[in-house]
Structures are given as structure tokens and as C-alpha cells.
Design brief:
Rossmann fold; alpha/beta; homotetramer; 2 domains; 11 helices; elongated; 7-stranded mixed β-sheet
Chain lengths: 320, 320, 320, 320
């Protein structure tokens, strides 16, 4: 009888609980034993775990956050910490470790896989959608909808006050959220870290919009594009239009998962259990071309997921 | 210079406005002229239309319903009515007609295509998700989330009262909504028109659940599975557990579209404009294997879209 | 040291958990001992209870439903059942019993108060808002907002299809929800059990509205006004306009409480603890003229709370 | 026949549209003529207005923002600007001006009332709830619920990461939003501009909480309490717990109004029309002790509305 460990790691994402539920229930049905380590990699190092079964994941499919907790774990980034984790996995006789997290967590998992025998299966779950090997991660759709709903509200004020709004959404290095949200709210301008922008073109666009009768404009910007406070101020000063900044912050991480985030959590979790049952190791599961697939942990970790710039172009053409 | 007509037809779906906006703005950018006929096919028969341009679709991306109105049109089902529509399209010199609607609307479009020269392009937009040729329709994701959010609330009462809840969602002939919603809320039982059910198995499942300590259970049923009032009563009487029915009705049709419904509306509308620019005719656009594709109107209308019964099986395995 | 029992009784209402939290934490701070009986009066009869303290009510302020469960209890309506409850309260040495519920629960509490020494304090908590002695009950504001948000969505379909919608909201005997919701959505017609209606006047109003250019109308009706299916059909047949019915059901009972429901739960719970600390007995707490007050259980149970018909008149004047 | 002008002024608030609708429809029914000036006081100075009637306020009861627009108007603060506004009111023969706004707008209205004959009626409508003479303003309940819903989501992350969250809500000079939101989310600490705080007491409270087993804590702070970035950093450094800041910004101004905001808009608007019909002048309407009352514009403007510190105390007692 296999023994499976589960962790959630990195920033929490809505749908992590749905993923835990899937893995626990399907693995239990196959007769596997399950333990949940708490606080991500920290739990591996401190060997803090609890047994899990079908009842311990009841009533969580619709809850944001993670019942297994999560934490940044600087110690795991050191050789000694990672070694300790590997030893505990061996000591606890964990055959497979399911890592529910994003790109950062998978990088850690990849390193760990090099020094321990436990098979590692990654379930991409992060609002950032930055995992190579899957078109979408668990939690991304929820974060996009949460940000979108807020901007729909801010639009009321933008229109009533005839103002420019710069809205900063999450994404320190990647623009997936900004792009999806910008398209969804009909943003006049979308700024992502992957594409350099020219502030003069922003001024031009805003001025053209004004001439067309668009008295309010929405600029959706990923946090990674630079100082949005400064940008907002510059826009105000240069164009003479009132501009305001709104930072959509941590709220994007929480809340009940959307149907799609729960759906992906179910499909990904199901594939993960299939994969580990087959004795495969060091893979992540993912969505590609409408199918649930696996990709090696190595490939996922060593490849940068591209942003679809055609969508950026489409958003621009739609904001006329 | 091409002249494009647009209609929204059949039951309204969240994202229809986003689709109108996309088609109008992109077609306008290509130099095409645009008119919107009102109330679906009725507007073709009465020749009721208005010119449309980029400003006439401002501020609608986030609105449910349709600014072009929609209506059932029994007259269009008669030969004389359809003939009149064809004559008006010719008289108005409409080169292409974009039909934003579901399977029923496309059946009408297909008939119309046989008697008129106007090229017809279908943009699948219905909460029912019943269009062959696309994995998902505009509005489906919103309807699923709306129903799911309601059932998340009903769960509070189910748990507090330790009751069985039968929840009827939309779907007179198809179970797409019921399946997606049932998976998302973690329903103990999902009933769809495509799969016959045995009421005795329902009793058995509920009794097993009770023994396991699950004192409340959710049964998600498509309206097409039969009389849910009767089913609820029978469950109460047979099992002795308190059962209640809740019908999630028209609310599933309305509300602001989700990010995904807006996203599909943008991609579908964009493809529709590309298709009609190319001089193609009598097609629908759709999502297949993660790509935006076209399918002939004929094929879409003459094929029944299958329900993915593997998902039904997965939902069952997860509800232990 | 006093010993306090708590029950939640009758239909669950959003904010019951917030009320439990308030009573438990404030009573604990005063050095009182606390137990929660489960499933309302049933728990008194079966003597099923658990000790409660500040940590047992953590993380529940924002949750719908009730962690103490609730149930209808036909046995409590019999003399023998009520007697058993009274005996258990005596045996368990419960000095005060806090009953969190609505009018039906308070009627039971009033009868119980006649045969036992335990002081009873009622905290009005029901979506029905039918408790005399308080202008508003915990949960009412949430139910009104939940129904309103749904009707805001249905309006999209009403406008797009140019239809009449009859919307049935909760209220078997009272029209508080229908009135508040009807005013909030700008319903053309509001039907409450307290005021007889003439179906011919409904036809007249709808026809006048149509002449004014209002092609869609919303009729908000309490469930207690009669057969809404029949009414909808009659309206269709008589006026010739398309009419549809939507029943907003159990969803009104669940969901996270609004700020106001939590606010009232905090103020009511606080007053309840003050009252029982003072050694007062057989009272309910309530909101009157912006102040938190107490009313005798007897007076609350023997008086019918009036509906404010001036608001009904105002809603009518606003729907022109 | 009276002629009534309407403006919305200051920051937009959800329910302003519902208030416009009420005033327009009820005043129209009394046979009064109505014009809406655009962009608040700016519209009075530029004499930009449009006629209004029952149909021009259809479909807006559920919309955030204001169809009459609003703007800051520095020119109105100068003598010459205000004089110009007064002249236009006289020239346009406006008998009564309904000002829908907050304390700042009423200060302007009060000054204007000293130099013109037009009767001024204030309808308190601001998320800030800072108007003396009314316990609640239109829009306040919506803003509180919007902020609360966000913090309910942030709590998921706070719990999952076992972090302290400082959450900044609106309120540059007043703590009404912070207090109501803090109570509603069960914040461990609430900081308002009206009450000085000692950062050492915050450290103590957080450390006590940690000992009790509360690994996450929420601190709700009004923006007016000082630099929340600095505070968050200091908490992190001093206590050693991870602390994060989230600023709930402009989203609090927008969105569909809650039932209560629409209810107050209806009652306030109704009272405003009654007041101006009676020939009263230079008043505001308000809610006091559960009744709709009037207060002189002078008294409202020259009195500071007190914050109820007993609620602050209650919130503290509940956060044990």
C-alpha cells in the first residue's frame, strides 16, 4: 500500500482545497494511505503532518485558502533544509509527494527530486498562471474574476468622475492576470512586464480617446511594470486629465474558487492520482489544447511560459 | 464596402453584449458598415434595425442581457416568415449576418442560409452549451458560476438543518449545466437527461452517506430529468430524511458575464469577423482543443454535441 | 458562576453564527460557563450539548448557517416534550437560555418559560423579520440583499426579452421581505399577504406601463399571496404579454451575512448578555427607533408585528 | 409650477442614482419641472443641464455612480464661481436645488444658500457617513459591505499563511467605515482617526493573540490614521510575525448599491420632495432614531458628527 504525502506551497490560491480533496478522495479509493504536511516545505523539514481521509476534506471544495496552510520557507532553499526534508520523506516512507503550488514551488520540488527517491507530482495551483506545461493553473480564473469584478465597480467612479484610472493587479514578473483582466474589463490600455511600454504612447492614446468622446479610461497594469504611483502622477501632469491609482491587492488570492478553478482542481487532482498510481515520477499535470496532460518537472522548471501577445493585440483593437 | 447585420437570438446569455461589441468594433476597423437588427429573427422579418459603430457598444462589455433584444419568433418558423426575412436581407443589401445565439437559433440560421445569399456566421452564445462544434459557448461559464454560488449558499442551510437538497438547474434536454455545477459544488448525486437514473440507487447512496456521517447531501438535477417536485417528495418518504427542492431559475440567464464568458466572446467575435472578411459563409466559430476554429453551420446543426460522461463518473468518485 | 445555554432554532438565518460568537465571548468574559445545545429544542429534549468558549466561535462571524445546527422539533410542541426540555435545563443547572431564532421559536420559548425557572432571552434572528418588538431581525438584511441581487440579474433577461417577470420571494404569512426587495429593485408591483390584491388592477398597471414605454415589468410577490404559477399564467393570458415566474427559494436563507446582519448580531448578543447578567428573565432584545431595547417575551409573542404600508405606497409612487 | 434642479456632488456613492430617481419621479408626480445639472457645482457655473422626467431615470436604481456625473470644482470655492452659480440658478428660475452629496458638498451648499434665493435641500449621500444630522448616509452601507467582502477574502490568505494583515479602508478624517467594517469582519484591532493609538499596545495585543492560538490577525485601519505602510513594517519588525498591508481603495465607491442604500435613497428622496413642496428651505434630510427627519443646513454644517466609541469598545471585547 502506497503512502502519499501532500503539501500546498507558495502563495495560496483559490481551489487548492478542491485539489487536496480530489487527491485525498481518489487516492483513498485506490487504497493508498495519505498524510498532509503543514505549511508547505516547512512541514517536510519539521515533519509536521496529519493523516487524511475522505471525511477530513469534507465541506472544503468551496473554500479559498488551504487547510494544510502554506508558508515561505527560506530554510528549504538551503542545502541543509532540503536534505532534512528528503530525510523525513524517507523516514516517513512517503512513496509520492503531491506538491500543490506554482512555479516557485515546483522549482523547489525539482531540486528536492534530485536528492530523494520519493516520486514528486506537481499540481499547478497559483493565481499567477506562470507554470510552463499548462495553459491554466488552479486559482487563476478566480483571481481574474475577483480583479475584474472590482474594476467593474471602479468603472462606476471612472465614468461618474470622467477620470483615468490606473489599476494595478498582481504579477511581479508576469502579465497573465493583467492581460486576462484587461481584456475582460475592456481596458483602454494593458501594461505587462513582458512588453516594454512608451509612456508617450499612453498619453497619445488617452488624448485620442478623449477626442472620440471617451472621457474615462481604464489602464490595467501588472505590478511588475514599474512604479504605478509615479505613472499615474505623470499621466495626470502630462495630459491634464484627472488620473487615480487603485491597487487590487491580496484580495486576488482569496475568496471562494470559481467553477472553473474547482473544475481544474478536480481534473488535475484526478490526473495526479492516475500518474502516481502508474508509478510515474517527477511530473506535473497540466492543461494543453483542452486535454489533461503530464510534463516532466524538469521541462516545466526549465522553460519560461510564454504570454500570448496576440491576445494583447486583440485587446488593443477592441478598445477603440 | 461590406455591410454586416447582427442579431442576438434565443434565450439571452451573459456575454452576448461583449460579443456584439467585438464584432462591431473589429468589423468597423475593417471599414465595414454595421446594422443591428432588434429582437432576433423578428427584426429581420419586420426589418427593424439600427446602425452601429464603436461608440454604440461602449460600456456594455460587463452587462448581461443584450442591447439588441431577443425574442422567440414563431413566425420565423413558418416558410412565409423566413422568406420575408430573406427578402429584407437582400433588400437591405446585407452581405453577412452574424447570429449570436444557441443551437435553436443556428437551426433557424441554417434553414435561412438555404434560401438567401447573405453569408451567415454563428457565434455560439447560450447558457445551455448545446452547440456542436464548440466545447463551450459564451454565457455557459457565467450560468455555471451563478448556479454554483447559489448552491454554495443553500449548502449552509443543508448543513445547518442536516437535510437533503434537490437543486434543479437549467437544461431542458441537456445536462451540461447540471454536470459542471454538480462537480463544482461537490454534489453527492448529479442527474442529467442523457443518463437514465434509478431512484433506488439514489436512496441507497443517501443511506450510505448517512452511515458515513454525511448528514446533508446535495442532488443537482437538470430540469429535463423529470418532475423534481415528485422526486424530492419520494426521497423524503422513502428515506425518511428531510428533503427540500430548490429551483435555480431565470437568474442563471442574467448577471454580469464572467471573465471567461467575456474572453470567449472576444475570441469568437474576432474569429467571426476574420471569417466573414475572408468571404467564407455559413459557418459557426467555436472552441476545440484550446483553439478557435470554424465548423460548417450544417455540421453544427446536424450533430448532437455529446456530454462527457467521464466527468460524471469523476464527480461520482469525488463524492465519497 | 452562572451557566448559560444557547440554542439556534427555526429556519437558519445568516448572522446566527455571529450572534452565537457575541454571546459566547461576552458571557465568557463575565466569567459565565457556556454550553451550546444542538438542533434547537431537540437538543434540550435529548440533552445534547457541548461546552463553548472563545476559541470555539473563532472564524464563524462571516459564515451563514449555524454551527449549533437547527431543526424543526414536533416533539417540543407536545406537553411531554416541553416538560422533558424543562427537566434537562434544571438537571444541567442552566441559569439562562439564549434562544436565537424567530417568532415561531419565541412562541416555543414563551411556553417553556411558563414551566421552568431558567431565564429565557430571545435574540431575534430570522430572515422573515416577523418578530414583534424589533424593527429588524438578524438575517433579514442578508436575505433581502440576496433576493435583490438575483432580481437585478433577472432584470437583464426581462429587459432583453421585454417580458413581465413575477418573482416569488420568501414569506408564507408576512410580506417584509417582498416589500423591502420590491422597493430595492424598483418593482412595478409588490404583492404581500397583508394586503389583498385585485388581479384586474395588475392588468391595468401592466397595460399602462406598456403604453408609457415600459416593455418589461417586475412583480415581486411574497409566497403567501397565493399561487404564483397561476397568477403568472393569468397575466400572460389576459394581457397578451409574455410573463414568466421565478421562485427565489432557499438561497435566501444562506450565504455570508451582510455587514448589517453581523452588526445587529453583535448588538443584540451584547444586550442579551447584559440582560441576563442583570438577572432579568423572559425577554427578547430588539431594535426600536435606533436603540437596542428589551421587550417581554410575552408581549413579543402576543402581538403581531405590523407591516409599514406607507413604504408599500412609496414603492408604488416610485414605479411610475 | 415649481422648477427643481438636481446635482450630485463630491465623491460618487452607490445609491446616488436611486436618490435621483426618487426625487425626479416624486417631484414629477407633483407637477414640478425638473432639470439635472451635470458635474455637481461645475454644472451650476457652466449652466450645463438637461430636463429630467420619469423615463430618464428608468433602469438606474441598481447602478452605482451617478448619471448626472460629479466633479471636484475648485472654482466654486472662489467667490466669483459661487456668484456665477447663484446667478445661473436665478436666471434659470430654479426654485429648489436638491444637492445629493456629503459633508463637503453641503458646506458649499450652505455658502451658496447665503447668496441666493433658491431653496436648498441636501440628501446625504456619501460613503464616508460624515454628515451631522443623519445616522447614516446613502452609500455607506454599500461601501461597508464591499470592504467587508474583500476582507472576508483576505482572511483566507491570512489564515492559510498565518499572517497579520493591516487593511486600510477609506476615511481620511473619519473612522465610520473602519469601525463598521472592523466590527463586521471581527477585526482583532480597529484604528480610527478619532482615537489615538499606541503602537506598543498593538504589539501586546498581537502577542497575546498568538499565545491564545490566534495565528492570524486582522487590523482594520482608516486611511486617516497615518502611514499604514510604515505601521505594517513596524509590526513585522517588532513582533517578528509576518505582516502584510492591503489597501481597499476606490472599489469602495462603486458597485451596485445594497438594498439598504437604495432604501435610504428612496426615503431621503421622498422626504426631500415633501420638504420642498412645503416651501421649506436650506435643510438636509436624515435618519435619526429610526425616523426620517430634517435638520437645518446650517446646523448640519457647523456640527461635527460624533463616532460611537461604544461600538469600538464592543468590537474590542468581541475580538478575544
Amino acid at each position: 500500500m502506497k503512502k502519499i504525502g501532500i503539501i500546498t506551497s507558495g502563495g495560496d490560491a483559490p481551489g487548492m482545497n478542491a485539489a487536496i480533496r480530489t487527491v485525498v478522495r481518489l487516492a483513498h479509493s485506490k487504497g493508498f494511505k495519505l498524510v498532509g504536511f503543514e505549511r508547505g516545505y516547512e512541514g517536510l523539514i519539521t515533519n509536521t503532518f496529519r493523516p487524511m481521509g475522505p471525511r477530513s476534506v469534507g465541506g472544503i471544495i468551496n473554500r479559498g485558502g488551504t487547510i494544510l496552510y502554506t508558508a515561505r520557507c527560506p530554510e528549504f532553499e538551503k542545502k541543509s533544509g532540503m536534505q532534512k526534508a528528503a530525510e523525513n520523506l524517507e523516514k516517513d516512507k512517503i512513496d509520492d509527494l503531491v506538491v500543490i503550488g506554482g512555479n516557485g514551488s515546483f522549482q523547489g520540488a525539482y531540486e528536492l527530486s534530485k536528492i530523494c527517491d520519493t516520486a514528486i507530482i506537481g499540481v499547478p495551483s497559483t493565481i499567477d498562471n506562470d507554470v510552463f506545461g499548462t495553459e491554466e493553473t488552479v486559482g487563476f480564473d478566480t483571481a481574474v474574476n475577483t480583479a475584474m469584478e472590482q474594476i467593474d465597480k471602479i468603472r462606476d467612479t471612472a465614468v461618474s468622475h470622467e477620470r483615468i484610472f490606473v489599476i494595478e493587479v498582481m504579477g511581479r514578473t508576469r502579465g497573465f492576470i493583467a492581460l486576462a483582466v484587461g481584456l475582460a474589463v475592456g481596458a483602454e490600455i494593458i501594461l505587462v512586464p513582458e512588453v516594454k511600454f512608451d509612456v508617450n504612447k499612453i498619453y497619445d492614446t488617452l488624448e485620442e480617446n478623449h477626442k472620440k468622446g471617451k472621457k474615462s479610461s481604464l489602464i490595467v497594469a501588472a505590478e511588475g511594470i514599474g512604479d504605478t504611483h509615479k505613472l499615474t502622477k505623470e499621466i495626470s501632469q502630462h495630459t491634464g486629465y484627472e488620473a487615480r491609482l487603485s491597487v487590487i491587492g491580496y484580495v486576488q488570492r482569496g475568496g471562494n474558487p470559481t467553477a472553473r478553478s474547482r473544475f481544474l482542481a478536480s481534473l488535475f487532482g484526478s490526473k495526479a492520482v492516475e500518474v502516481l498510481s502508474n508509478g510515474e515520477k517527477d511530473k506535473i499535470v497540466g492543461l494543453q489544447n483542452g486535454k489533461i496532460v503530464t510534463v516532466s518537472l524538469e521541462e516545466s522548471c526549465e522553460t519560461i511560459k510564454p504570454l500570448d501577445e496576440k491576445i494583447l493585440q486583440l485587446a488593443k483593437e477592441l478598445a477603440i
